[in-house]
Write a structure and sequence with these properties.
The complex is a heterodimer of chains A (about 150) and B (about 900).
Chain A: H1 3-15, H2 24-32, E1 35-39, E2 44-46, E3 54-66, E4 76-80, E5 85-86, E6 100-113, H3 114-123, H4 126-147
Antiparallel strand pairs in A: 1-6, 2-6, 3-4, 3-5, 3-6
Helix pairs in contact in A: 1-2
Chain B: H1 2-7, H2 15-46, H3 52-73, H4 79-103, H5 109-133, H6 138-165, H7 167-170, H8 175-197, H9 213-230, H10 232-262, H11 266-304, H12 307-321, H13 325-352, H14 356-385, H15 393-427, H16 444-454, H17 459-472, H18 478-485, H19 490-497, H20 506-515, H21 521-535, H22 540-547, H23 552-564, H24 568-582, H25 586-594, H26 607-624, H27 627-637, H28 646-655, H29 661-668, H30 678-688, H31 693-707, H32 711-719, H33 726-738, H34 743-769, H35 775-803, H36 807-816, H37 820-831, H38 839-846, H39 865-875, H40 878-890
The chains are: A alpha+beta (about 150), B mainly alpha (about 900).
Chain lengths: ~150, ~900
């Protein structure tokens, strides 16, 4: 992989919730196993209740997330663009997808496979520490939101 | 404009929000100044100063009722809606008061107006602060709150000027209309802002509760009392507040008395109050904008807390010496300028160290109990002392309270840091001590849980449970473990049986022998290894049989046994068999490699020749060996002392980058066998910074072997920033600390790393200022920021033994947790660590605002982003250098 690709990929990963706490030194290993995929407007990247094995980071284009099975663009609960990621939780659990991902504009994504990531974690456990830190941060924020009373 | 924004520490996207809060508080402040001047003047001139103590008594009761109601309902609605309701109520009551004054229908309207003003002034400011807090995060609050509250002061100045210029024209009572207009403008502003921006972002809707809200608020006040008893900080804070209130109102009463006697009518008095309010608030504004933050930053929260008590003492002292009109003005400046500029923001910061669940309740207690009780006592005292022969006695009482206030503030400062640390420790879940006995409690529930785990279908899970159950319940777990071994793969069976420690227990040995034929020869050899390791002399026949076995692995077990037992004849036969293995085929040689470590313990007569044979064998076997075989080879080689042949060195340098962590770790144990050159050093650094703890530890063992445990060698290594990633440096530093490196060496590291961090910060600022949007620039920015945080972490690790407490480990946890609140508290804790010359610089580095003019003369100026990139290539570690090199090729000339 050449350096511009590597930099782009590391920066995209760094912006995602789940990898934000991992140092760039370690992210280069994750960047190595990313694959680029292209989708066209109207494509569906995955469906609700699919077996989820991958996480995606958007390089360009727009992707919408819908909670329905046969959703249209009008049913989207969120629209995501460059640098945003989706499907992260499936990297850690084995539950089916809780939503569908619909391509709104022609899109390039970086795909991270769960199996490859797990292999990488076995080899570099420090990665999982960074991921745990990110998840813990997210959990803390949620906990604070629920438990904090204004004073 | 940008420059002005920078001076006020306002970020790019915060301009509109800050402007809105400023204008809102400006309107509110202007109204309050008009209220202050008119209420005081009308009360003092139309009702009389002698009734002021009664007002204090009444106010204390009103405060209790209103604050309980306020606390009960404040979180029921979003803060902006509540604010709106308060403004409407304020407007309605003020209109009524104005009408009564105009009609002259009751003289009681003046004390009523006075009480209303006092109540509004408290509630509006408290709620405005609360409301702004719900619209800013913690770090924004810390940075912007003083500036936003300055809007209120600005309003007070404007209000004072209105009193001076407009009141003589429209009359004192009609000034209330201007106040009403300002309240309307504030309400309109509030509505239109939230119509556009929606609800306050940090408002948390309360969960549904059927309990009576007032009862709940009273209960919270009671809980606050319990916390006050428990927390030393709260206790001292309550005492300080109690004496501060008495001191404040006695001073206020004394100066009002002087003013009342100095002016003949209410118009003159109002005009004077206008000048006083404007100038006192102008001074407060100046202090808040340009002095408060800087003083707090320079001397810290603890010392800043003492500013208002000291100036109050000075005011009292002057008033005792000379109770004149001008000294009264000095005392008014103290109450109206110094107090809002220093006492209020610092008290807020003191409260921030309390845990969230305690903060609100503690504040409720101080507002609903301490403040009103103090006011009541103050009112009663003045009322009583008014009848005394010596009117100056009131001032002496105030002076005495000011001394007590000062003393409790000193005490608060002392307990503040420990409260801060305890709060962070609790929030960050840093355990004090782990009690290992908790896990060793022999009870059936644990045993059954472990047994269930042992039966897990996943062999690796089962193996992990076997490790625990054999250690915790050695007497009961052999049978189940052997039963499990029947159904595992050979490899796991082999690993599981190795967990059994036979010691001198014959029954275990018999059990092992019984199961020796359960699986393949490899398993059998493992059981022989276990038995021979402690009981070689008792099983000579078995050793004899193993030496002539066809399987090389069992032969190697026999050799181990022969070397460990006491018969010379059997020993010689063992050595001969060993030689056979070394010179045999690949399987024999692999078996010989597996027992290569025995070379260390054998007789010197055999050692040199066999060592040479081994060296040749390693060089030959490693070329075609697969990963598993190379692991065995590295395991055997790790005990060698001398440099190995080229093929071995080549294999090590390749395997150190393998994706298999076990292979990397095994290769790391042989780093000392590489030629002593810079390539070896680079490989060692790479292994020390590996993403797998096993590899790092193996590399560290190897470094210890190379340096002969000389920690001062590590010291030199760490001072070189180019060598190794921060993770590698961290493991070395922690090892040095474990070995007890002296403080002067640690200080040298701290100084060197502080220097490095300051350059990184300067580099980061240069990159941020560059108008280049390439990914290379952002990557370098991210990487340098990361390196800066990692270097600060190294500094804190090195400083921990120097400061001799665990506070810095809590600070590290706070800084790395990314939670804004904890980060702010960690910075605050850091600032409060005494007696260390680097703390100030470190605090600046942590806050990312390091100035390049420090007494250490650190810092380096980069003129251009390219300078930064070149510096990274020349002075950075391998990853920083590598990224810097690439970024140079893409950066604009």
């Amino acid at each position: 992989m050449n350096m511009p690709d590597l930099f782009e990929k590391i920066l995209l990963l760094k912006r995602s919730d789940i990898f934000s706490e991992i140092a760039t030194d370690d992210l280069r290993f994750v960047a190595d196993i990313l694959e680029v995929e292209q989708y066209f407007s109207g494509d569906r990247i995955f469906e609700k209740n699919d077996k989820g094995d991958d996480m995606y980071v958007i390089i360009s284009g727009k992707v919408g997330i819908s909670l329905g099975n046969n959703s249209t663009k009008n049913d989207l609960v969120i629209t995501m663009g460059k640098g945003e990621s989706f499907g992260e939780m499936n990297l850690l659990d084995d539950l089916p997808r809780s939503a569908s991902a619909v391509v709104i504009e022609d899109t390039s994504v970086l795909k991270l496979s769960k199996m490859k990531l797990r292999g990488l974690i076995m080899s570099y456990p420090e990665l999982s520490l960074g991921m745990l830190k990110s998840l813990s941060l997210r959990l803390r924020r949620t906990t604070n939101l629920i438990s904090d009373t204004p004073d | 404009m940008d420059r002005f924004r920078k001076i006020l520490l306002i970020n790019d996207n915060e301009g509109a929000q800050v402007a809105f809060f400023l204008i809102l508080l400006l309107c509110l402040g202007t109204g309050m100044a008009i209220g202050r001047g008119t209420a005081d003047a009308l009360f003092l001139k139309r009702y009389g100063i002698e009734y002021l103590p009664i007002m204090y008594l009444l106010l204390s009761c009103i405060y209790i009722v209103f604050f309980v109601i306020y606390a009960a309902f404040v979180d029921r609605l979003s803060s902006e809606r509540f604010f709106l309701i308060l403004l409407v109520l304020q407007a309605v009551t003020l209109s009524a008061i104005w009408l009564i004054i105009i009609n002259g229908s009751s003289e009681y309207v003046y004390p009523a107006y006075f009480l209303l003003y006092e109540l509004i002034s408290e509630i509006i400011l408290i709620h405005a602060t609360f409301y702004i807090g719900q619209n800013l995060d913690t770090l924004q609050s810390k940075r912007l709150m003083p500036i936003i509250l300055a809007g209120y002061q600005m309003g007070m100045v404007v209000g004072g000027l209105i009193l001076v210029s407009v009141v003589p024209v429209i009359g004192v009572e009609n000034a209330i209309i201007i106040w009403l207009l300002l309240i309307s403008v504030s309400a309109i502003l509030l509505i239109s802002w939230h119509k556009k921006r929606g609800e306050s972002p940090f408002y948390i809707p309360p969960s549904r509760s059927r309990r009576n809200r007032v009862t709940k608020a009273i209960k919270e006040v009671g809980q606050g009392l319990v916390f006050t008893r428990q927390s030393e900080l709260l206790r001292n804070s309550s005492y300080a507040l109690f004496f501060m209130v008495i001191m404040f109102y006695v001073l206020s009463f004394s100066v009002k008395k002087i003013y009342s006697e100095s002016f003949e009518n209410e118009a003159e008095l109002t005009r004077f109050f206008g000048i006083l309010v404007a100038s006192a608030n102008l001074a407060a504004l100046f202090l808040q904008l340009f002095v408060t933050n800087r003083i707090i930053e320079k001397i810290g929260v603890r010392k800043s807390k003492l500013i208002f008590p000291v100036t109050s003492l000075v005011s009292y002292f002057l008033l005792i010496i000379n109770p004149s009109f001008y000294i009264a003005i000095v005392a008014s400046i103290n109450n109206n300028s110094i107090m809002p500029a220093f006492r209020n923001p610092v008290r807020q910061m003191f409260f921030n160290v309390l845990p969230g669940y305690m903060k609100g309740r503690a504040r409720a207690t101080s507002v609903a109990i301490v403040l009103p009780v103090a006011m009541f006592v103050c009112g009663g005292l003045i009322l009583y002392l008014q009848t005394a022969n010596d009117p100056a006695l009131i001032i002496y009482i105030g002076f005495f309270c000011a001394i007590l206030y000062f003393l409790f503030c000193v005490r608060m400062g002392k307990v503040y840091v420990s409260a801060l640390i305890n709060n962070m420790k609790e929030k960050l879940y840093i355990p004090s001590e782990v009690e290992p006995e908790l896990f060793l409690d022999n009870n059936d529930r644990i045993y059954n849980a472990l047994l269930k785990g042992l039966q897990n279908e996943d062999e690796k899970v089962s193996l992990s449970y076997a490790k625990i159950i054999l250690r915790v319940f050695p007497n009961y777990s052999l049978d189940p473990v052997f039963k499990r071994i029947q159904h595992t793969s050979v490899s796991v069976a082999d690993q599981m049986v190795r967990l059994i420690p036979p010691g001198s227990d014959e029954s275990i040995i018999n059990m092992l022998l019984t199961h020796a034929d359960d699986r393949d020869d490899h398993f059998k050899a493992t059981i022989y290894d276990i038995i021979f390791s402690d009981h070689a002399d008792e099983y000579k026949d078995l050793i004899d049989a193993a030496l002539i076995h066809s399987n090389p692995r069992i032969k190697s077990s026999g050799i181990k046994g022969a070397l460990l037992q006491s018969s010379d004849n059997l020993f010689k036969r063992g050595m001969n068999t060993w030689n056979e293995l070394i010179t045999g085929g690949i399987h024999q040689q692999m078996a010989a490699i597996e027992i290569g470590y025995l070379l260390v313990g054998i007789n010197d007569n055999y050692k040199p020749e066999m060592a040479e044979q081994y060296k040749n064998m390693y060089a030959k076997v490693i070329i075609d060996a697969d990963a598993e075989q190379r692991k065995q080879i590295y395991k055997a080689m790790s005990l060698q002392k001398n440099e190995q042949k080229k093929s071995v060195c080549h294999a090590i340098s390749i395997d150190i980058e393998s994706h298999d962590p076990e292979l990397r770790a095994r290769a790391s144990t042989c780093l000392h066998l590489l030629p002593n050159d810079h390539i070896r050093e680079d490989i060692i650094w790479s292994a020390l910074g590996d993403g797998h703890g096993g590899v790092r530890n193996a590399a560290l063992d190897c470094v210890e072997q190379l340096t002969g445990n000389s920690i001062y060698k590590y010291h030199e290594w760490i001072l070189n920033h180019k060598k190794g990633t921060p993770r590698a440096q961290k493991i070395l530093l922690q090892t040095m600390i474990k070995h007890g490196i002296n403080h002067s060496a640690l200080e040298q590291i701290v100084e060197s790393k502080v220097n490095y961090a300051s350059i990184l910060l300067s580099a980061l600022e240069t990159l941020i200022g560059e108008k280049d949007n390439s990914s290379a620039k952002y990557m370098m920015q991210t990487l340098i920021d990361e390196r800066l945080s990692q270097t600060i972490d190294l500094i804190l690790i090195a400083m921990e033994p120097i400061t001799g407490s665990d506070v810095l480990s809590i600070v590290r946890a706070g800084l790395s947790c990314q939670d804004d609140g904890h980060k702010a508290n960690a910075q605050e804790t850091l600032q409060n660590i005494d007696n260390n010359q680097y703390i100030a610089i470190l605090t600046s580095l942590v806050e990312r605002n390091y100035k390049k003019t420090t007494k250490l003369g650190y810092g380096r100026k980069f003129n251009h982003a390219r300078d930064v990139l070149h510096w990274c290539v020349e002075n950075g570690d391998s990853w920083l250098g590598q990224c810097g090199s690439y970024a140079i090729t893409t950066s604009p000339q």
